[in-house]
């Protein structure tokens, strides 16, 4: 399956031994699992069965009372059967519905559960719904001024003089206005390598943008422009409440500014998808929303919007393969917000630093594994091979050496470099002491490393 980023020129045939796990900087917060869809119960329609002909017979007072009791009992059973799946859905997915049923349980446990599941709203984002769910044209008209075109300008070196040319275009969304400055979210791959970034505004004007911060692994970047002429910012919603089948629209600039602010409509095809992507910092498993709303080259960095007019995702990927249609992916808004907060605050995402270069063991020839690394049996083709250890790094201080094979981190199995990054970046932070199980010459060793903050 060919997973491609819009507007991204991939480098093929990369040498695997050069993959750097120097661990660029990552979000230290764990990913939140979106709620499972709640099935709507099938409504049972009540039919009137009480009509009987007076010409047929008369009911006595006792018969009427018995009939009434029978109907009451049936009605209670009918209501109980109808309410059962609803209560089960509410109890299992109260966060999705946004309600909390009154149940006789311990209040302390309720408070703990609520604090664990309720997403924290960043103060850098507006959350107010901006439109009526049934009026898409009005919603689009209301949001259009927050959608921008992003042009990546790069300098190429010719024989006589430097040439400046547009390397690619994408989309972005204005999410914050603060005094004389306004801020835009887009994809990292839209602006990566840019010598200069220009923004095309809704009114047709263009302006230069400054890259405040970007992150290759999460494919997000924040740009700054003058707030002159910026009257509105986009509102962001809670992506954890999304369910498959909900209507969404995408607004962006497919194939460039010629088709600026193109609107496509579709549904959420799936939540909690994981797509492996290749980035300038190595491979990464990205958590995404799947949609069948058309996403084409140039849509990257633009918003995916729910029926309330709120941004619930940033469009980033599509699967381009013969015979495959309508497989687009967006970064969930709940994943976007904490990364953007860090980019605004520090210009980068702070991630823990281990200090090793590594490759997947599946890429190491078995003959080398057996004859040089001393591995055998079920030790083969598992874990990641440590190609190099940076002097003075946490890995070096822990006693890790080139030629070691990392098979576990904090008790969790490691199969690929992507596995190690995922655990390291989402379950650990600078200052933590983590344990590694390694194979050295076929023997198991346990090493403990105190992580530091990446300087890059």
From TrEMBL:
Residues 118-129 have a biased composition (Polar residues). The chain crosses the membrane at residues 80-103. Residues 358-442 form the PDZ domain. It comes from the Bacteria. Residues 1-58, 111-134 are annotated as: Disordered. Residues 1-22, 36-49 have a biased composition (Basic and acidic residues). InterPro entries: Chloro_Bact_Ser_Proteases, PDZ, PDZ_sf, Peptidase_S1_PA, Peptidase_S1_PA_chymotrypsin, Peptidase_S1C. It holds the Pfam family Trypsin_2. Belongs to the peptidase S1C family. This is Serine protease.
């Amino acid at each position: 399956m060919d997973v491609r980023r819009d507007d991204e020129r991939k480098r093929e045939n990369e040498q695997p031994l050069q993959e750097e796990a120097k661990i660029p900087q990552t979000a230290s917060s764990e990913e939140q699992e979106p709620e499972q869809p709640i099935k709507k119960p099938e409504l049972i329609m009540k039919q009137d069965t009480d009509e009987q002909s007076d010409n047929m017979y008369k009911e006595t007072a006792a018969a009427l009372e018995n009939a009434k009791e029978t109907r009451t009992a049936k009605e209670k059973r009918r209501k109980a059967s109808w309410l059962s799946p609803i209560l089960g859905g509410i109890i299992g997915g109260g966060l999705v519905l946004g309600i909390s049923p009154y149940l006789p349980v311990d209040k302390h446990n309720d408070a703990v559960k609520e604090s664990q599941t309720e997403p924290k709203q960043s103060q850098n984002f507006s959350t107010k719904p901006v439109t009526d769910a049934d009026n898409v044209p009005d919603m689009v008209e209301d949001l259009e001024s927050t959608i921008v075109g992003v042009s990546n300008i790069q300098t190429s070196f010719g024989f006589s003089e430097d040439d400046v040319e547009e390397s690619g275009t994408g989309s972005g969304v204005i999410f914050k206005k603060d005094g004389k400055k306004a801020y835009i979210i887009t994809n990292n791959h839209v602006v990566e390598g840019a010598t200069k970034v220009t923004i095309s505004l809704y009114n047709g004007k263009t302006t230069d943008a400054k890259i405040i911060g970007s992150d290759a692994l999460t494919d997000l970047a924040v740009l700054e422009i003058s707030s002159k002429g910026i009257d509105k910012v986009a509102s962001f919603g809670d992506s954890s409440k999304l369910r498959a089948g909900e209507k969404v629209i995408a607004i962006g600039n497919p194939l460039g500014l010629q088709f600026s602010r193109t609107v496509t409509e579709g549904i959420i095809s799936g939540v909690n998808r994981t797509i492996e992507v290749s980035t300038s910092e190595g491979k990464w498993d990205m958590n995404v929303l799947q949609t069948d709303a058309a996403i084409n080259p140039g849509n990257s960095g633009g918003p995916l919007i729910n029926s309330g007019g709120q941004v619930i995702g940033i469009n980033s990927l599509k699967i381009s393969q013969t015979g495959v249609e309508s497989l687009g992916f967006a970064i969930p808004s709940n994943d976007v917000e904490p990364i953007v907060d860090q980019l605004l605050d520090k210009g980068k995402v702070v991630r823990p630093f281990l200090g090793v270069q590594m490759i997947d063991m599946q890429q190491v020839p078995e003959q080398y594994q057996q004859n040089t690394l001393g591995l055998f049996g079920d030790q083969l083709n598992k874990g990641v091979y440590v190609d190099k250890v940076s002097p003075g790094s946490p890995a070096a201080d822990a006693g890790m050496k080139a030629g070691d094979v990392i098979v576990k981190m904090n008790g969790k199995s490691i199969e690929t470099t992507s596995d190690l990054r995922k655990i390291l970046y989402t379950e650990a932070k600078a200052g933590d002491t983590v344990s590694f199980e390694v194979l050295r010459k076929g023997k198991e060793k346990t090493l403990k490393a105190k992580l530091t903050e990446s300087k890059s």
